[in-house]
Amino acid sequence: MPHRLEVPEKVCHEFLEARAAGMPEGTALTFMGMPLTYREVNARSNRFAHALQAWGLKKGDRVAMVTGNSPAFVSCQFGILKAGGVVVPVNPLYTGRELAHVVGDSGARLAVVLSLFVENVVTIRAETALEAIIAVPIPGMEIPLPEGTILLEAFVAGKPEHNPGLDMASTDPALVIYTGGTTSRSKGAVLHHRSQVYCATMLSTLDPSMTAQQDAFLLVMPLFHIMGNAIMTFCIHDGLPIHLVPRYDPKLVLEDIHRLRPTWFPGVPTIFIGVMHHPDVKDYDLTSLRYCISGAAPRPGESLTEEEVIAFCRERLTPFKVPKIVEIRATLPTSVIGKVLRKILREEERQKRTPKL
């Protein structure tokens, strides 16, 4: 990686426009066996941008995305940005309380929701500033939608496929991504176009030999997570195909690697451990992979002693926070994005302290 980066003063959706102009029939992404070209993704994003503006979206308005990993997430995110909006990616598996907090705290006026999760959003609507809910249908699944919900196809019907051409600056906000809420309620981190452009430019330096002809990314990481979202933007920036996986399932991941032959596989330790420990892992050809990119992982328990933990805490923490009991574990219960599930740890400790009858 170079010591200095020349980062262009661009906005994120310029990358998609450039790819649609320069390689319109190139594969932008595949999903469940269905390929989408840059031209198709760009046209969908433009139609959505025009629909948002016709609806009344103003520059800086927040739009919640509750779709999970899907082609609609990609096209709608770029459409929101082209309309001047700010994307608020939301974990669709949030509880009602968590969902109400993120949607309400962000001030989102509109939500784009996978039909499977529409009822959850409708339930918390009164606690938020939501004015409209757009439903993204699941092919092959007939899910009744509540009254007042707008289907995505109807929302964009008749809208033009050209860029609305709104004047945007690199300093304009692009996303509000909420923290994991490990120590307190989750907080919205505002990411400007410049930060996403910087990230894409930086990732381009990982291997200058990457090309659309020989490389592709298997994207299992959720697009509502900063890592998954940044890699999606980077792939559009570099013209690299994305094999988008709808949900994390070790066997599904192994099948996709075997069949699709991706060269890059970004993830977190939880994902890699699940794949490597799958009982059928030896039945799949994983030799196409050149790189597996991981976020920070906890230091393995066998290399860390109780004395080291206590000494570290005495040096860095106030006396009353120094632990009296230290338990070393090989692994911690985590979500798919690597967040430590403290509520499970608390329940385990409660059970240990409960006298057995």
How would you briefly describe this protein structure?
This protein is an alpha/beta fold and about 350 residues long. It has 12 helices and 13 strands. A 5-stranded parallel beta sheet has the order 4-3-5-6-7, with helices on both faces. Strands 2-1-11-10 form a 4-stranded mixed beta sheet, with helices on both faces. It has a two-stranded antiparallel ribbon with strand order 8-9.
Description:
The protein has 12 helices and 13 strands. The model has no long low-confidence stretch (mean pLDDT 91). The chain folds into 3 domains: 13-196 and 221-237, 3-Layer(aba) Sandwich (Rossmann fold); 251-294, no CATH class; 301-349, no CATH class. The chain has 357 residues and is an alpha/beta fold. Helix 4 (96-106) packs across helix 5 (118-124) and helix 7 crosses helix 8 (226-238). Strands 4-3-5-6-7 form a 5-stranded parallel sheet, with helices on both faces. Strands 2-1-11-10 form a 4-stranded mixed sheet, sandwiched between helices. The protein has helices at residues 13-22, 38-55, 71-82, 96-106, 118-124, 152-156, 193-203, 226-238, 250-260, 269-276, 306-316, 342-353, and strands at 27-31, 34-37, 62-66, 86-89, 110-114, 132-136, 150-151, 173-178, 188-192, 217-219, 242-244, 264-267, 291-294.
